[in-house]
Amino acid sequence: MSVLIDHQALERSFAWSQMESDLSSEGFAITERVLSQRQCNEIISWFDDDNRFRKTVNMQQHRFGRGIYKYFSYPLPDIVQHLRAYAYPKLATCANAWNEAQGKSIRYPQSLEAFLELCHKKGQNRPTPLLLKYEVGDFNCLHQDLYGDILFPIQMTFLLSEPGRDFEGGEFVLTEARPRCQSKVEVIPLKQGQAVIFAVNQRPASGAKGVYRVSMRHGVSKLRAGRRFAMGIIFHDAS
User: Fold this and answer.
1) 195 three-state secondary structure
2) What is the spatial distance between Cα 13 and Cα 126, in angstroms, rounded to a whole number?
3) Which residue ranges form the domains of the chain, and what is each CATH number?
4) How does pLDDT run across 70-108, given as a tens digit for each residue?
5) 157 vs 55: CA distance, rounded Å
6) What is the DSSP secondary-structure string of 52-92?
7) What angle do CA 174, 14, 175 make, to 5 degrees?
8) Could you report the per-residue pLDDT of 40-67, keeping only the tens digit for each?
9) Do the beta carbons of residue 65 and residue 134 sit within 8 Å?
10) Could you report the per-residue pLDDT of 120-177, keeping only the tens digit for each?
């Protein structure tokens, strides 16, 4: 990518104070538009260049759903690395607060580089950011992106296509399983260039009897028309 997003633009798009509040109360937050249409289209154009990727997954073959996704190789494209490194420190502060609230002793370092060193020492050295393509009838089953013993509890997904123009259906879905309660479902209304930031597997929630753990999963509903591209940025590497 020839043009990176500058720091001030990122600060405006992410609006961290509100996003930290949303993450704490809801387990997810939505950015303003981060990527321009030009940037989204350029990222989409990478999909057919297999030299950029370490692995291609056909979801139907593994009963993950229907669609194709590809994991980027190291070194990551500049803008992917830039977004991953930019967001990590803010999210590490939130993740550490979550662990403290849940009574977990794990604390995450404040730089992505230091966190990835921990992953690599455990044999988790394969990059996890990915590019996803859905066509008519495709969907992604509810799941959690867990790739090894070390995980970072928050991740991001950027929508690269424009709803209503490029595709119909294909909504991003989050479910929240609460103790002794039926699951809660959220349908996340994203536009092209926006991102949703959300819990990978568990987050703390406050109730009448104190803090309890909520289990979360995410997926994509069936695409009814067109073609939908998205980019996922996961912070822990895979074993």
Assistant:
1) strand
2) 29
3) 7-233 (2.60.120.620)
4) 999 999 999 999 999 999 999 999 999 999 998 899 999
5) 19
6) GEEEEEEGGGGTSEESEEEEEPSSPPHHHHHHHHHHHHHHH
7) 5
8) 999 999 999 999 999 999 999 989 999 9
9) no
10) 999 999 999 999 999 999 999 999 999 999 999 999 999 999 999 999 999 999 999 8
User: Which token pair is 206?
Assistant: 């406050």
Distance CA 168, CA 113 (A): 38
Amino acid at 161: S
> CA-based Rg of the chain, rounded to a whole angstrom?
17
Residue with tokens 């999909």: 47
The residue written with tokens 């424009």 in the block is 162
pTM: 0.94
Identify the residue whose tokens are 């568990």: 202
The amino acid present at 204, given as its one-letter code, is P
Tokens 């939130």, located at residue: 94
